[in-house]
Amino acid sequence: MTEKLWFLKSCELFRRLEADDLAMLERRCLSRRFARAAPIYMPADEASGVLLMAEGRAKICSYTDEGKQAILAFVEPGEIFGELALLDSGEREEYAEAVEKSNIIFIPQDVIESLAERHAHVSLGITKLIGLRRRRIERRLKSLLFRSNRERLVSLLLELAEQYGQPTPDGVQLAIKLSHQDLASVIGSTRETVTVLLGELQTEEFLTLGRRKITITALDNLASSIKAPVPRLPRRALFPTV
């Protein structure tokens, strides 16, 4: 089994495909490696397919009118991104950048559309992916409009727990390494503000901080502090992430 085929079979979206479809998928896909901080695609690039993160990590971003970076999503191994090409094969509206050395597989639009037409689970998976990403973006926009910096940060931490939370003896550890600037770029704040707020949450015993590591020690209390439901921890990695 080739490395590319192994990564394709590891993706939730393609796990149930038969050997012939997997072979076709492998033939038509292109694999490319990106250095840390390298652009994967840019605004106005042709949106001619979707991408699978095989190894590494990326972020999906846009820039505000003031030139500030706004992080829309993080992409982890096994996740599909750039999926809006399936709705409109025009131009990309955001940009994607490798956060670390990454191996990414490009899947042409006609290939993914053909699989979706012939396999209900692929079509359903794509629909769920697009819907989940849109709901998370809408939730973030509402948070930016109506919540304080602290409430936005807590809401993001709960969302990350739902996506990346791993139970440990000390609490729920977020299995994603984010800097204070990363968190600030997601919630529309500043690094200094996020640093102060995380310090307050640690003092109030909601969480503990390590080097790019956050462990939520009181998940129920953290959720109730903003009157939010307690997030369900992931059973396994899925394709969407925002």
TrEMBL record:
Domain called Cyclic nucleotide-binding: residue spans: 13-115
A Pfam match: HTH_Crp_2
Family annotation (InterPro entries): cNMP-bd_dom, cNMP-bd_dom_sf, Env_Response_Regulators, HTH_CRP, RmlC-like_jellyroll, WH-like_DNA-bd_sf, WH_DNA-bd_sf
CDD domains: CAP_ED, HTH_CRP
Domain HTH crp-type: 147-220
Any one of the GO CC terms: cytosol
Protein name per UniProt: Global nitrogen regulator
GO terms, molecular function: DNA binding; DNA-binding transcription factor activity
Keywords: DNA-binding, Transcription, Transcription regulation
